[in-house]
Amino acid sequence: MFRRRHLVATTALAASLLALPALADQGKSTATPTSQELLAKSSAAEWRQPDPNNLLVMQLATGRVLIELAPDFTPRHAANIRTLIRQHYFDGLAIVRVQDNFVTQWDDPAGDDGGDPAKVRSLGKASSTLPPEFTRPIDPKLAWSALPDGDVYAPEVGFSEGFPVARDPASGQEWLTHCYGMVGVGRDNGPETGNGSALYAVIGQAPRRLDRNLAVIGRVLEGMPLLSGLPRGTGPMGFYATPAQRTTIESVRLAADLPPAQRPAVEVLRTDSRTFTALIEAKRDRHDAFYAVPAGKVDLCSIDVPVRTTKTVATAKP
């Protein structure tokens, strides 16, 4: 009798275990929408056009790179960079350093490591030094979209004005972070020595240890393959050993200074939009045939803010 009851109980347990996957499937939602599906359903109001006064158009021999400045976070550096651009400072300079899994840097080849300081190009009306803008006071008026999963380097992280941002409520400070595609200002040891005449873009792992030690002035919206796909420099820190290895910068212009027909027609997804929130959640909790085990978390630098081309160009704000 014991054996029969045990067999019946075992059979019932086996049947219930076999039913668990079906019950789980019934409780599970359908596959997570892809980024393309979410963006296809976004509304026009969820996209913004960068202010042409903050949109840099850098023309290389290999193509165009678009960079959006972040003047709410680094206003002095943004203003100085605009001055340098309008003086045509960057025209004819070069990409002088490409360090694998780190950064691509461009500035005056005569002033980089191994260059001739006597030939350094004049800054004209631009400032040669600037107060450091490594952090700024938290501004409650700016839109803030927090990530829910925490961060190793800061008490809070999220997105503001379309940029990845870290915050410390205890100190009341916030700062732009060194995620892939972000653009920062090269400097010497002195914190005031970075004026925007030497810039770099993060092309590899996110070097978040640099946060709050360098001014981050914006991010690349278009053309990252032109910066990340360059041959790596063989000199110290990835500097090119010979001038022939450098990539020349043909010109850098502000979109506001270009004729309207020549301005880049791009839009950036608003990081305070419902679609952007859905994109974050889709990365956090991915369910489909490939992702058998969703991560359930997402880190700041693994999220790309979408950019798309549009039929209209933005007008400069007063």
CATH class of the domain at 52-265: Mainly Beta
Helix content: 10-25%
The largest pleated sheet is described as: 8 strands, antiparallel, barrel
Order of helices and strands: HHEEEHEEEEEEEEEEHEEHE
Q: Based on DSSP secondary structure assignment, what is the total number of beta strands?
A: 16
pLDDT < 50 runs, ≥5 residues: 1-28
CATH architecture of the domain at 52-265: Beta Barrel
The class by helix and strand makeup works out as: alpha+beta
Outline: globular
Widest sheet: strand ordering: 2-3-13-11-12-5-4-14
Number of helices: 5
Span between termini: 90 Å
Here the CATH topology of the domain at 52-265 equals Cyclophilin
Strand content: 15-25%
Looking at this structure, what is the CATH superfamily of the domain at 52-265? Cyclophilin-like
- Radius of gyration from the alpha-carbon trace, in angstroms: 25 Å
Look at the structure and give the mean pLDDT.
Answer: 89
Structural features, described:
The protein is built from 5 helices and 16 strands. The protein has 318 residues and is an alpha+beta fold. The protein has a domain at 52-265: Cyclophilin. The strands form 3 sheets. Strands 2-3-13-11-12-5-4-14 form an 8-stranded antiparallel β-barrel. It has a 5-stranded antiparallel sheet with strand order 6-10-9-8-7, with no helix packed on it. The chain has a 3-stranded antiparallel sheet with strand order 1-15-16, with no helix packed on it. Strand 8 and strand 9 form a beta hairpin. The longest helix is centred in the first third of the chain and has 26 residues, at 2-27. The termini are far apart. Mean pLDDT is 89; it is low at 1-28.
